[in-house]
Amino acid sequence: MNRLTNETGKVLVLCAAIVAATPISISAAETVNIYSYRQSGLLKPLLKDFTARTGIKTKVLFAKKGLDQRIAAEGRNSPADVLLTVDIGNLAAAAKLGITQPVSNSDIDTNIPPQFRDPAGHWFGLTSRARIVYASRDRVKQTQITYEELAQPKWRGRVCTRSGQHAYTIGLIASMIAHLGEEKAQAWLTGLKNNLARKPTGNDRAQVKAIFSGECDIALGNTYYMGLMQTNEKEPEQKQWASAVRLMFPNSQDRGTHVNLSGMVMAKHAPNPDAARKLMAYLSSDNAQQIYGKANFEYPLKPGVQADPLVASWGTLNPDTLPLATIAKLRKSASEMVDRIGFDDGPDA
Amino acid sequence: MPDSQSTDNHQKQRGSREPAALSNASGALSPVSSVAAFAAHAGLAGFLFLVALPLLALGWIALVSTSDVWLHLLNYVLPRSIGDTLVLLALVGLGTTVLGAGCAWITTMCAFPGRRIMAWALVLPLAVPTYIAAYSHVEFFDYSGPVQSTLRAVAGFENSRDYWFPDIRSLGGAAFIFSVVLYPYVYLTSRLLFSMQGASVLDASRSLGARPWEVFIRVALPMARPALAAGVALALMETLNDIGAVEILGVKTLTYAVFETWLNRNSLAGAVQLALVTLVLIAGLVWVERRGRQRRSYAASTRDRPPARMTLTKGRQTVCLLACCLPLLAGLGVPLWILGTYALRRVGQEIDPDMIAALGNSLQVALSSAALATAIAYAVLQYARAIGSSRIATVGRISTLGYAVPGTVLAVGLLVPLAGFDNWLDAILRVHFGVSTGLLFSGSVMIVIYACTLRFMAISYGTIETGFSRLSLNIDMAARALGRTKAQMAWQIHRPILTRALAAAYLLVFVDAMKELSATLLLRPFDFETLATFIYDRASQSALEEASIAALLIVLIGTIPVLFLSRLSYVKQG
After folding, report:
1. CB distance from B169 to chain A under 8 Å?
2. Domain that holds residue A123
3. What is the pLDDT of residues B109-119, one digit of tens each?
4. What is the domain-level CATH number for residue A68?
5. B548-568 and B130-141 helices cross at what angle (nearest 10)?
6. pLDDT, tens digit, 9 for 90 and up, residues A75-85
7. Is A10 on the interface with B (CB under 8 A)?
């Protein structure tokens, strides 16, 4: 046992040495520091291209939650230049927290349509993803659908979705509140709840799997999951799931399909604002829009930039023109509505 | 309990005239020793302040910000999530006790083939992070997983409409998964205790007519209560602070509600208030348990011979072996199966150099925080013991409650004061000396080590405290009577006896720090990935499959200290 104590002692000394020897990170001059809710692997091809074009280096710090709070706590010494996010909720929360600064850049203003930008310039979108309906190829015959229709009794026991509290679902419900008003939206959500085949669970991929396994006939999901499954060489099983479903773009005949964003903001105390502006302009450019869209099967926001051929093969996206800023405002109501009707409890027995 | 009577009396005495009982040997305090005592008190207060810092910061956030979410939470969220959380905690408490104490008893008291291997192997599931366990079990029991595929093939079912299968993504499923990876906390503590329980007590109960299982239920288990409580408390706190697994399993615990409130209701203040309410819940549970055994002593007699193992019939031996195999298969076997299958398909892939760097970083964080967490907990507890103050031990215990707070929330609680301090220091140095120190602490790896130390302090504290609880106060009295100073007593007598507990604390924290994800993810500096954050980055981009090799690596590296751990809880017999 004494031997163990000695070992522990040695390890202690070693640890002290390691801690003491750890250098404190110092940011270099021509670098953009990126805090990102998007995975570093996804950004790699983009940032490589950016560095090749401008000579500006990039650093990425990925996390799923709380980066806005980190920037706020770090205050004027924060190393973050920009925050890259998914979901309008995160963009709006960052602006509300006061950690952003407005950016006015003619490139961004021409490249990104106004409904995908903050009117005050605190955030803007880079790519969009549509919340669509996956339908069983065998068991669903129709080719057109609306979100409203999902609440009709003919779908009883046939619909699957992920949790109502997930940001993607919240975004959709917020758009329904904007279009229908609070009361009708709640009636719609209750109808949808009663049509569920099971308790909301799993991610969007799991919904496709549930159609494949026969648990449900239609499901809500984001477009890009389809691309990720259709191209999954490592797990060919997922291609099989994907082949059991086809995509329908809800409301494409009327107001358009609900879309959400990935986007970015500039940090209030960005140490390298010029380099950051260059990155922003670059990310809205033709080239970057194409790479970004392709990397995760998302839709480029810049008009005229073609989506990836696989994405285009799913059909034509007619995006809802409702400003994303409106959706951001209604997210809280949407989240409360989910709790109020007990959406995540699943269908009433 | 041979010596419980005398210790009981002693404790009652101590309660009435606390300082006098142990300090009269040193006579009146000299100026030197009073300075030393002051320094010790100040040091202790400093430690406790640093340990409690994030909780204080969170308390501040909760108090100064207004949140309008409570009416909604009370009406629609809390009834459900408090209910679900309590049921989950009850089930996990029951599951870890049955599996942990049961297996510990079997491997200590019964002779059966494979016993020695089982005795150490049963600790291994501790190396599996809960989020990896949850992911693996979902894959394993899901429609396209091996279980249902086999079922369909055997029974000739077409699809899921043809048969009913329990959903692992449920409260019951979550309780099962948490139990099979967290029972080793209970196993470790109770095993050490069972092997030290003297034979005479057990023999006495047998001679009074108790059957073997009655000895277990009515004598051994109650005697092991402090150890059980320490182990179960760790398992429950880990269940409570988890967000990764409950997200995968769709179980709406209080922690889930904390994140919903923060991210969907845009109220960090409301989220923190909720987290602190959760903390009060846990503190309450800990308090109730402690109160329940306040007037009892559980110190074991060291003179007694170890109990002899029972010989069993062949049939019962098989039952014992199976009973040990089941938790092991569920806790370790299933994750290894799933990760192994995915990893095998990626064997040809070149090894990512980032993964090697991440391994180095993980080791740096885990080694440092394990050392710090062990040293601090030991210092506080030894000091409390030396001056005979149970109050200090309690204050120490309260300050370790950070473990019950979800890691990301704890991280925010740490960022606010540390970055605030950094900015303050930076501003002063800029004005007076023209130098900028930037984010001195919060911008470096130090904040990650700080967070991991804090997060797992409850583990080192609980483990070492259990170690102290087994040290009869008679030993202290004897040492003092023989003229040892308190310092000598601590160094010459307590420390050697506690080596096992100290090493166990170190290893436990090491394993947990290797697995730590949520606080590290939010606090780490640029270009600093640990294995856990590396996996998370890859896994959240597509799915865990892509990170299966790294996930396997976390589990395998975790098993090394776990193996040392299981040796520690093995007391040589005969």
Report:
1. yes
2. 31-128+259-315
3. 888 888 888 88
4. 3.40.190.10
5. 120
6. 999 999 999 99
7. no
